Amino acid sequence: MSLAFSIRATNRVAASCLTVLLFASFARAQRASGEFIFLLASGFLCEPGDTSTCPCTVRANAGDSYEMTGAGTFDTQSKSVKAAGTYTHKSSNGNVLETGVWIASELVSFDSYGAAPNALPRQGVRFGPATMGPKLPKLFGPMPTGGIAVLRIRFLPIQGTSTTGVLQVNCALGDVPRERSVEGIRLTLERNNIEYSEELSGRVMFLALRPKISAPAKAPEQEAPETPGTPHN
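Given the sequence above, the corresponding structure tokens read:
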């Protein structure tokens, strides 16, 4: 099996997994206030032919780099995360050293920079098909939010053994700290503690999920009082 075929097959499998993740996430989009969807150089963030948006690329001091895409959800209250994507490890001269998929195993932390409600209209994004009847205000949809998420992930290469790492995903929206004004990812490999900290490209976004709004409970119907002298059946 050629490496090129393996890469294409891996990308197809990963794309299918990401689609399932995204549809499942949007289907339950109005639940707990601590839940977020995140996109890592995927979906509507990507612009055809624009390598500055997808994939996310980060480089180490030695010159080698990682290219990553993905998507998923996490909950800041339970510290749970469900996310997956693809990656390619390249040498300093651009040769492919390793490729495969990655999966998130733990949400280490998430620091929010605040909401950015105008982020989606600038990109012309619409969630879901048009529906009949009145439209819900944007207040009740997923809210673009800036922040930095730290995830513990596992790399599953096409060939070789799996490894673990710590992935930082930085979305530069909201009240962004000066030191994290560059959007993208950073990566630390736990096997050798090599840091990839030079963000080269890639667009990421967090979408805060709104609490589900329940219809008000109906008051129990009361029987009308009987009129004195009314005969009973």
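The chain has one domain: 3-116+142-208. Try to locate this feature in the token string yourself.
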